[in-house]
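Subject: Protein record for review, amino acid sequence with backbone structure tokens
Concerning: The relation between a protein's sequence and the shape of its backbone.
How to read it: Take the token row as a discrete description of the fold.
Enclosed: The protein record, placed directly beneath this head.
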Amino acid sequence: MYPLLPFILFFLALLILFSGIFIVRQQTAVLVERFGKFQSVKQPGLQFKIPMVDRVVGRINLKIQQLDVIVETKTKDNVFVKLKVSVQFKVLADAIFDAFYKLENPHEQITAYIFDNVRAEVPKMKLDEVFERKDDIALAIRRELEEAMNEYGFGIVKALVTDIDPDNAVKNAMNRINAAERQKLAAEYEGEAERIRIVARAKAEAESKRLQGQGIADQRREIAKGLEESVDILNNVGINSQEASALIVVTQHYDTLQSLGDHANSNLILMPNAPTAASEMLNSMVTSFTASQLIGEDMKRAKALKSGPEPMKVPEVIKHKE
């Protein structure tokens, strides 16, 4: 009467049978209930459940998950700042039941603990300390979350403070302070460099003056040596020292005139500049040398007379009373 009924029943049986077969992916856990009561946790692979009796109620991700939370709070020095906190967490493999049945929304729970912890720690610090001790803040968040979330089947892998964002006015002020500090440091370095340059320049100038003075001393020594030799040569031909000195001075006078003549654009004027200046100079020097010699001889004679033998003193005879 119903020739297709067996095929329909067979087809329905296959559908019911295949409805009890399901696949669980890697790093995933499946929770199965039987008549509304928890039955088992199915692990990755091909799994079976009783059709019409067992029901898959949820799939739990066992991978590490990350939750980013931005918290705005105030520091000890009354600066409003936003902190971005990143929490990496996962469902513990041996507490899948607790993770699924004890918490309705784990993200909201974790966010609440982050807000509570950040607003308890940051107001104890000044703004600079928040930047310096962000690792301490992250450690406190992780410790607080571990104590609270392990009970619900969640493990905290890591907590990070990834960003600290003060108010724009505060950031601009901090940038100006930093720029002023760097300008001050640059000025100090420039001053130190200038001091080093001045000291080096002074040392170089002192060394130059020393060498210049040494050169002038050597030059004068050689000039004196040459003059001495010239005087000796003139003395050998019957010219006395005074006449020789006067002759050398006159010769230098003519050498100076010749040197001035070599420079057409020279602004120097030699005084006196009369044609008879050389002869007058020679006569004046000979006269002065002769007068000096006579004065020197008179002074020697006067000194010799003054230092002659003193007259003998006759001792007084003391008469004694008889």
Summary: The first helix runs from residue 5 to 19. Residues 312-322 have pLDDT under 50 and may be disordered.
